[in-house]
Design brief:
Elements: E1 4-9, H1 17-31, E2 35-40, H2 48-55, H3 63-75, E3 83-85, E4 96-98, H4 103-114
Parallel strand pairs: 1-2, 2-3
Antiparallel strand pairs: 3-4
Length: 128
Amino acid sequence: MELTVMVLLGVAGKVKSLDHARATGELLSAMNPSYVAALTVILIPGTPLWEEYERGDFELPDERGLLIEMKEMIAHTNLSGGIFASNHASNYLPVKVRLPEGKQEALDLIDAALRGEIGLKPEWMRAF
């Protein structure tokens, strides 16, 4: 049986972003799914997370922080042949690679985006 797993970038907030990325990568490695789908948190007015954000109890990483979180997650993910994809409408940068052989390709793509060599999806095009 094949296993598909969804992960949520940004859900741990700005402060715990990299801890979340590393722990998620380690968990994905232990699960060894066939497919990993990464989505990005979008704050929606009226939700409990929105209320935390409004009170100042939750700070969502910015675009750069979310890219760094995804990079850290991929760096700590060791699959034996699964796909890692961030091609959902909520993401700023679409990535789709087979791990382990495509890991460096994904990390290089994210680095290029962090350097401004690859454009990110504009905010108005993102959706949940």
